[in-house]
Amino acid sequence: MGFGMLATSISSGRRPADVERRERILEGAERAFVRHGFHATTMQHVADELGMSAGNLYRYFPSKDAIVEGLCAVDQEGRAKAFAELMAGNRNIMEAISAGLRKHVFAHPPEKARLTVEIWAEAGRNPRVAEMMRAIDADVLAGLEKLMDAAKAGGAASPRLDSRFGARFFLTFVAGLFKRMAIEPDFDAEAETAMAIGVLRALFAGALAPASGAPGEEA
Fold first, then answer.
1. Of 171, 72, 70, 179, residue with least CA distance to 118
2. Distance CA 136, CA 211 (A)
3. Residue-range domains of the chain with CATH
4. Model confidence over 34-81: pLDDT tens digits?
């Protein structure tokens, strides 16, 4: 899912100076990626964004790929927290997912959506980035499938819901929304949220399912 859930406002607390410095570097790197474009950004751009020397930057991250790995780790931490919040307690799961979509998808400004799309494009050129993106997608799919299993177990979703299909469909659906957020100047987040919730309700009702039979055959 790219850095759709990237937690750029990292909580402050008493931590080792090197940990805080790495976090500040990751925040600065994301700003540099937005400013210059992901593919065009160099380590020097990142260093300039942070007001530090390139040599000092290399002490913490030896390459741009290493920075991307660091951003992925932050992304994973935020994503795990988001899924935990969705499944916590006795919350209405549809209301929780609606709130999660607003917070983790539709609240992103267009430049963040463009960055996500640029990183996906970079995955087509850079095998290491592609590997990281596949790992993120696998993590998101596992979380969505677990969420849908929990919805079925709690009676919030129909037993007919195929959780694996639902997770894959919704990941593809949200990826399309990120693309539209990136390129449509009049993207209407509220209208798209309503559409996304409608799709989720259809999934949870078991109204969306993979076609039976081979491709091209009548179901």
1. 179
2. 27
3. 17-204 (1.10.357.10)
4. 999 999 999 999 999 999 999 999 999 999 999 999 999 988 888 888
